[in-house]
Amino acid sequence: MTDTDSAIAARLSGTVRIVGAGLLGASIGHALSAKGVDVVLSDTSPAQLRLAIDYGAGRAAREDDRPALIVVAVPPDVTADVIEAELRRFPDAVVTDVASVKLEPLNALRSRGVDLTRYIGSHPLAGRERGGAISARADIFIGRPWVVCRDGETRAADLALVEDLALDVGAMPLEMTPEEHDRSVALTSHVPQVVASLLAARFVDAKEGSLGLAGQGVRDTTRIAASDPALWVQILGANAAPVVAVLDALAADLTRVSDALRAPDAPGARRTVADAIRLGNEGVERLPGKHGQNRRFEQLVVMVDDTAGQLGRLFGELGELGVNVEDLRLEHSPGAQFGLAEISVEPAALRGAIDGLEERGWRIASMTND
């Protein structure tokens, strides 16, 4: 085996059965199939199953299949049912699931008296706004956390299978209890979905002229508002208590700022608003940045003509200048034949990037601190 072959060799061996050929299930299938793993797909929708197979996410099931690992990737309201059925059907297999809520299905299975020795809950923190097999991609897990919820009965070999699954698709496995997981995703995933959706709902009755002023900030804030309502009803219902706790605290914060703005000249009003913005600064700084580090970057906004090859030329010339692009956001200027490329760079590289790009004829629209 060459070094290249070794680098891409799968940790998993044997057959992996994936139940649910939607976005996550099919994406896992693509990632494992690319490494030569034998992936079997199952779905209650024949059309979804055929589509996932046609796209190369795995093969159809056979009667003689004996999977070593089963991945349940179905909607939250049927996750417990499918886990129970798979444990019963394949008594020698380890079963995991990728539902975004971990405590409710676990409690449901416990209440039914299901033997959970071979079950390990897990959750990849990855996804897209669009669902279904047609949106599946092998690379959506790369560099993303994959939570694994073991307990005292979990066998080391079984745990290794689930961790190998995460590693084979490029994710980073980490252990949490179901309670820790659900509280964490309430804050970092479920409440942001509600907030984005409520804010985007304000656009429904807005005048067209107002929406024409929308910039990258509002687009970033509302990007996830395009998510599937039916799925999110299930997710939020399954994790209601932790979500409500965060929403109640957020509602109190909003009320405090609203009250301050009703009388902005009242004593303490400006401090209330300033504290809200400052605490937001501190919170953002705690989010892991590139390579998992909390780092601050400088930003420059470059005007890019809306013609073929211009963005590639920009990146090429930044490379020639020795400037590493830490992050990139693109915004099209309404009614204009150019876009704005907002590029994050190391502070020490900012001046060289600006001077070098201007010498090459690029127009710098602005500079900001990130």
Automatic annotation (TrEMBL):
Residues 14-291 form the Prephenate/arogenate dehydrogenase domain. InterPro entries: 6-PGluconate_DH-like_C_sf (IPR008927), ACT-like_dom_sf (IPR045865), ACT_dom (IPR002912), NAD(P)-bd_dom_sf (IPR036291), PDH_C (IPR046825), PDH_N (IPR046826), Preph/Arog_dehydrog (IPR050812), Prephen_DH (IPR003099). It comes from the Bacteria. Residues 299-370 form the ACT domain. Gene3D superfamilies: 6-phosphogluconate dehydrogenase C-terminal like domain, NAD(P)-binding Rossmann-like Domain. Pathway: Amino-acid biosynthesis; L-tyrosine biosynthesis; (4-hydroxyphenyl)pyruvate from prephenate (NAD(+) route): step 1/1. Keywords: Amino-acid biosynthesis, Aromatic amino acid biosynthesis, NAD, Oxidoreductase, Tyrosine biosynthesis. Its EC number is 1.3.1.12. One of its GO terms (molecular function) is prephenate dehydrogenase (NAD+) activity. Transmembrane segments: none annotated. It catalyses: prephenate + NAD(+) = 3-(4-hydroxyphenyl)pyruvate + CO2 + NADH. GO terms for biological process: tyrosine biosynthetic process. NCBIfam families: PRK06545.2-3, PRK06545.2-4. Belongs to the prephenate/arogenate dehydrogenase family. This is Prephenate dehydrogenase. It comes from Microbacterium keratanolyticum.
